[in-house]
Amino acid sequence: MKKKEQHIETDLSHLGEDRLSYSGAVVTPIFQNSLFTYESWDAISEAFDDRTNSFIYSRGNNPTVKVAQQKIAKLAGGEKALLFASGMAAISASVLHCVEPNAHVIAIQNLYGPANNLLFTYLKKKMNISVTFVSGQEVSEFEAAIQPNTKLIYLESPSSGVFSLQDLKGVAQLAKQKGIKTMIDNSWSSPFFQKPLSMGIDIEVHSCSKYIGGHSDVVAGVMISSEATIDSIFRQEYEWIGGRIAPMDAWLITRSLRTLPIRMKVHEQNAMAVANYLESHPAITIVNYPGLKSFPQYELGQQQMAGYSGLLSFQLKTTDLEQVKTFFNSLEIFKIGVSWGGHESLIYALAISYIKEMTAEQFAATGLAYGDMRISIGLEHVEDLIADLEQALDKIK
After folding, report:
1. What does each C-alpha distance from 97 to 83, 105, 139, 153, 193 come to in angstroms?
2. pTM of the model
3. Mean pLDDT score across all residues of the chain
4. What's the pLDDT tens digit per position in 119-162?
5. Cβ 186 vs Cβ 204: under 8 Å
6. Residue 280 is part of which domain span?
7. Which residue in 99, 146, 205, 320 is deepest, having the highest Cβ count within 10 Å?
């Protein structure tokens, strides 16, 4: 009789952990060593022949890191995962693996800022990479943007800021027909709520500082793909560039993965309640959250996501910067910070960065407003979060 496959919650607790070899320790030890020794010439020679799976030097493989990687790969539905020192390290390695000098990349608008800079500024200068940005809401946009030298389609669904979606199955099918690689930043959904690899995407990346880490105490990144792709990246971009993760950070990620399903469900419940509250408030113009039925791409989200995370944005009706600051500074539970995905609720306004770099006319041309707010809904009690927003909104004239 075929053994029934375990649920992901069980795998996140136990997969990859050989507790008997760790003296029965219920928690994986932190292997804080730089190298591994061998008993003979032949033994270490054989390890080098299979260095993608062997423990030789912790810039490559490490037992603590391997446990976390196995759990993430299973969670995402991929064959293999590779952890990095940051989300941008995972993104950079993925992009460099897929492109070559003079190549063309198609990327969505509203791309994560550092990823945008990598493509449009750094690689344009260093490798003459060209980039075409599309809204991504129609597969036909990607098809129209394809050039003879297109090597990569870079997705982020939902996207940064406005949380627009892309048809992942449709884009993947188009790319495969044209021999183009696809990658996606799936940090918003986490691999618990969205599984792009099952829809045909080639490489999935995450900032583990967000939901996978979930406690605002680790900076890390991960990529998940086929075994062949991961092993190829391991032998080149990972070993040569050296963006390895520390064993302690991998240990923290393993700790966090055990509670990821529970945390994501609470993030979703809290965010849905907050989004509904904000949508009904007279001081709010619009709420951007894929879980709302009013969201323009709600049906697409229902097809390709199993749930919704805690990151959303909204726009205050007022355009008076002082009034916006009054609201922003009046919040008590929502802390001011640039990241998201942790246990705590956060708020950030894009105008804080943009008005330092642009004139008022340039800022207006972006389509953004002073009142555009991004909030990350944490694990506090939702009634307290809504009460905090309400008292701050009440101070707007």
Report:
1. 16, 13, 24, 13, 27
2. 0.93
3. 94
4. 999 999 999 999 999 999 999 999 999 999 999 999 999 998 78
5. yes
6. 260-393
7. 205
